[in-house]
Design brief:
The chain is α/β, with parallel strands linked by helices. The protein is built from 7 helices and 11 strands. α3 (74-86) packs parallel to α4 and α5 packs parallel to α7 (185-194).
């Protein structure tokens, strides 16, 4: 394993989360950071520690980075992950891996063949409260889990008030948006906490007057393999937002 200051990292996408990744990498002592973004314009923040900016992914991968962080719109995740895996790079991709299952097996095979580390950024698994809950469940401190519910409501136009919410990936079908994919963290941490799911039903709809072409409301119910039942409610319209 290389020391942090000797690692070469490629970050794909320089929106709000891409910039956060760059700053975190720099804080970890990584200085060789290349960014691929749509336009070859240096970010407004002059202190953003970027080694080089590319508009061509293939050219950036030719530099043989040790790892790639994919922070682009959802619809691009799988294609870019496959390209990075073919180049032999370890990968961290923002959730979800894709808006479609087409190509997932190709990615899995490349990761296994090249013995790569691949992770989806479901960071709630590292939240101290959820980790404590996980420990309590494992120790059977709180008894048998019978049911679980997650409520997560956000007001989409307030996420990035400096941007037109209608143009963001969360609001656009062609970019893999919609509340189910964008607010997908509960699907991961519910499975992590309680177990695999063997049946699912859902109602998804566009119910508000937001100018988007994806669902803004979803109610999903499921049954875990251990017999417990669960539900997740998601929306883009709640003010003030809450996640519980």
């Amino acid at each position: 394993m290389k020391e942090a200051e000797k690692l070469s990292l490629l970050v794909i996408g320089l929106g709000s989360i891409g910039k956060r990744h760059v700053r975190n990498l720099h804080a970890l002592g990584i200085e060789d950071i290349t960014v691929v973004r749509r336009a070859n314009v240096f970010p407004e923040e002059p202190d953003l520690p970027v080694f080089a900016i590319q508009t061509n992914l293939d050219a950036a991968l030719e530099r043989k980075p040790d790892a790639v962080i994919i922070a682009s719109p959802t619809s691009l995740h799988l294609e870019q992950s496959i390209a990075a895996a073919r180049a032999g790079c370890h990968i961290l991709v923002e959730k979800p891996i894709s808006h479609s299952l087409d190509g997932i097996e190709t990615l899995r095979e490349l990761v296994e063949q090249n013995q790569l580390v691949f992770q989806t950024a479901f960071q709630f698994r590292f939240h101290p409260v959820l980790r404590q809950i996980k420990e309590l469940i494992a120790q059977q401190t709180i008894g048998t889990i019978i049911s679980a519910h997650v409520h997560w409501g956000e007001y989409l136009p307030a996420w990035h008030p400096w941007e037109d919410y209608r143009q963001g990936y969360s609001a656009r079908q062609d970019l893999g948006g919609g509340v189910v994919l964008t607010l997908s963290h509960p699907f991961d941490y519910m499975r992590w906490l309680i177990g695999e799911i063997n049946s699912v039903s859902a109602i998804v709809a566009k119910l508000s007057n937001l100018e988007i072409d994806v669902e803004d409301t979803a109610m999903i119910t499921f049954r875990f393999e251990n017999g417990a039942v669960g539900s997740i409610y998601l929306d883009y319209i709640e003010r003030p937002s809450q996640h519980r």
